[in-house]
Amino acid sequence: MGTFACLLMLVLVLFHTTASAAGPLPRLRSEGGRIVDPAGRTVILRGVNLGNWLLFEPGGLGDSMGRVADQHEWFSVLRDRFGEAERRRLIGLYRDNYITARDFDAVASFKFNIVRVGFDYELFEDDERPMQLRPDAFKYLDFAVAEAKARGMYVLFDLHGAQERQVDGKQGGRIGYNRFWKDSSAQERSLWLWDQVITRYKGDPTVIGYEALNEPWGGTREQLKDYCQRWYERLRRIDAEAIAVFPGWSDGIDFFGKPSDNGWTNAVFDMHFYPGSFDRPSAEKPVTPLINAKFIQEALPEWAARMKRLETPLLIGEMNVVLKDAGGGEMTRRYYDFAAEQGWAVTFWTLKELTRRGGVGTRMWMLTTNRDPMPAVDIRTSPIEEIETAFRNFATMPLVTDPDLLHWLTTDEKPRPLPTTRPDDAAPVHTGEQPR
Predict the structure, then answer these.
(1) 361 burial level (CB within 10 Å; 0-12, 13-18, 19+)
(2) Which of 47, 59, 257, 364 could form a disulfide with 112 if both were Cys (CB 3.0 to 4.6 A apart)?
(3) If we measure between CA atoms, which residue out of 85, 12, 139, 47 comes closest to residue 339?
(4) What's the whole-number mean pLDDT along residues 154-171?
(5) What is the DSSP secondary structure assignment for residue 4, as one 8-state letter?
(6) What pLDDT, on a 0 to 100 scale, did the predictor assign at position 8?
């Protein structure tokens, strides 16, 4: 058996957790700045996002299906070519095969105990029939809960793409389109949607909680706080136990104030950290570990002090070092270790993305990817049969796991001391989904 195969079979458990596949998961809550179990013991939540599944982001396929800007364009091309019914059928094939049971096995191979599942509103309702559940509305969320439960994992649901789009980037589903904050009916529809989701999973401790919106930066901080207040009140009318996750602005959470002052209990804040991840190396500006080292040594302790004042844990809902020259798996592990010391949670972005060339490279947004090159298929020109075949192949194509990340996220080996940073080393905090 080769080294890689041995790594895949590692069963080392790094951190204490009360989660177990042998029985029901304990209900977790936010208390005193940490996430704890019913006995008040800190539970370390280490996990990953299931990105590019229930909201499509073109970077997740590496242009292997042709070049499209965002989900809106992707859906529009399929609709224009084949009609709305066929568009829905094809997208169903995509979702059926992009994330399957083997992907949850991949999550388990990293000894993770939580998955963050972002979804798009169009799973639940049609714009032509607002506030009417589609017959198959819960197909994929139910699947995620069942697969996670079977492996002793928690699920956090977040509304990644809201009605009329809460942010004008591809992470919201449509670049350059953001009417959510000006359209009260879109906001009301989103709250109605949350009523349906929360009612569905109330009482199931596998669903640890809900995040109001993903990266909702299309309005103002005041609008976001007001929306979150209304969302929280709806949540608590239905479920008094689920963790309420409040999404931070691109640069912070201070505008929310202290949760207890807002009447919020069992609350967690979410921030996304990608220092240096979008840099393109050059001879004049090579990528080094220093940006991440500075962020971990200086910015994260500031966040720890802030969260202690707020008496609230932090969810690092998205993070990635991306570039191997920036520290790779070992640097990624340091983020998880820091969060564990604080009683926070981390969900890496993302489990899987696919590329034309296949294989593990030096710039990895994902933990797993296709092993072999993908055949050329273009949703604009390829016959429908070829598109169908490509979607079906997602479930069976050979995958490869990044051995660097697998090692550092499963070993009990401690990372080496961080490199020394200089006062003039910049440490910009990039947040959210950016062009890849």
Answers:
(1) exposed
(2) 47
(3) 47
(4) 98
(5) H
(6) 36
Strand, coil or helix: 351: coil
Tokens 């980037």, located at residue: 169
User: Which residue from 99, 91, 231 is spatially nearest to 159, judged by alpha carbons?
Assistant: 231
Amino acid at 134: R
152 DSSP 8-state letter: T
Collapsed DSSP state (helix, strand, coil) of residue 267: strand
| C-alpha torsion angle, residues 322, 324, 325, 330 (rounded to 10) | 100
Concatenated DSSP letters of 104-149: HHHHHHTT--EEEEEEEGGGT-BTTBTT---TTTTHHHHHHHHHHH
Q: Alpha-carbon distance 222 to 232, whole Å?
A: 15
Q: For residue 173, count other CB atoms closer than 10 A to its CB.
A: 25
What is the DSSP-derived secondary structure letter of residue 183? -
H-run or E-run covering 161: strand 154-161
d(CA 327, CA 380): 38
The C-alpha atoms of residue 108 and residue 61 are separated, in whole angstroms, by: 23
What are 197's two structure tokens? 């989701």
Strand partners, 369: 400
Q: Which 3 state secondary structure label does DSSP give 335?
A: helix
71 exposure class (CB count in 10 Å sphere: 0-12, 13-18, 19+): buried
175 token code pair: 């670049």
DSSP conformational letter for 241? S
Cα gap 417→359, rounded to integer Å: 30
Tokens of 161: 């793409």
- Which pair of structure tokens corresponds to residue 220? 């103002």
Helix ranges (DSSP H) in 217-348: 221-238, 290-294, 300-310, 328-342
Exposed/middle/buried for 436, CB within 10 Å: 0-12, 13-18, 19+?
middle
CA distance 77 to 89: 14
pLDDT at 12 > cutoff 60: no
HEC profile of 286-319: CCCCHHHHHHHHHHHHHHHHHHHHHCCCEEEEEE
Buried b (16+ CB within 10 A) or exposed e, 309-340: ebebbbbbbbbbbbbbbbbbbbbbbbbbbbbb
> How far apart (Å, rounded) are the C-alpha atoms in residues 397 and 216?
35
The answer to whether 304 touches 340, Cβ cutoff 8 Å, is no
Of the chain, the percentage scoring pLDDT greater than 70 comes to 91
| Secondary structure letter of residue 46 according to DSSP | E
Separation CA 153–CA 170 (nearest Å): 28
At 271 the pLDDT is 98
